[in-house]
Structure prediction request, 246 residues.
Amino acid sequence: MRRLIVGNWKMNGLRGAEKEITRLGELLTPDDRKRADVVVCPPATLLGCLVEEAAAAGIELGGQNCHIRPSGAHTGEVSAEMLADAGAKWCIVGHSERRQDHGERSALVRAKAEAALRAGLTPIICVGEKPEDHEAGRAEAVVGSQIEVAMPNIGISGGRFVTAYEPIWAVGTGVVPRPSHIEAIHARIRKTVGPDTPILYGGSVKGKNAGGILSIPNVDGALIGGASLKAEDFHEIISARWTDHG
Ligand SMILES: O=C(CO)COP(=O)(O)O
Prediction:
């Protein structure tokens, strides 16, 4: 089965980043393209600059966040319509850095996912437990309730969405959960989202561990931070060998 590999550049990238996209396009082999769909989510300021290079490289673009309204008096915000207008096809919502830094809760994340759907974008809904929840053995319960609340109304624009499990203690730390942990949480998410919604894993995915992670049952792709910034590193992940779990 094809995997979905998404790069989240976070607050990184200035003009000139086009060359990373072009380089990635050069690195992707026909076999890579057969095995994976590739999406890059740069800062909103770069979307317009990267559109041509991304199209030439066969890569889709996404936003990293959106407002719940299409337009209006919301200083400093970017709407899903604006992201779509700038060339995005996807939008990350509910990333743990937004939940932590901006107090976003799952009900707001759901409203953002629905706004993305109304704008014709595919939302990538992030969930994941804090270190203290993990240590207390509450990961499954916490993630289960996050996804139950954040899941959009299926009736909106066909309702296609993607989920991403990113345990906060694994984001940017170099620590990766045991495969059995990832498997258990993905199985819990699957129960809520059903068989057709891709579930990505995110948190310290690198070229070296990507094949193993992408071989875990119910891991349909990966959401990558640091290792998506350089085309070579990102390509190492996309070209990793995984085994299908049917
Ligand atoms: O937050 C992430 C992707 O959204 C994961 O970040 P890292 O890959 O840098 O751990």
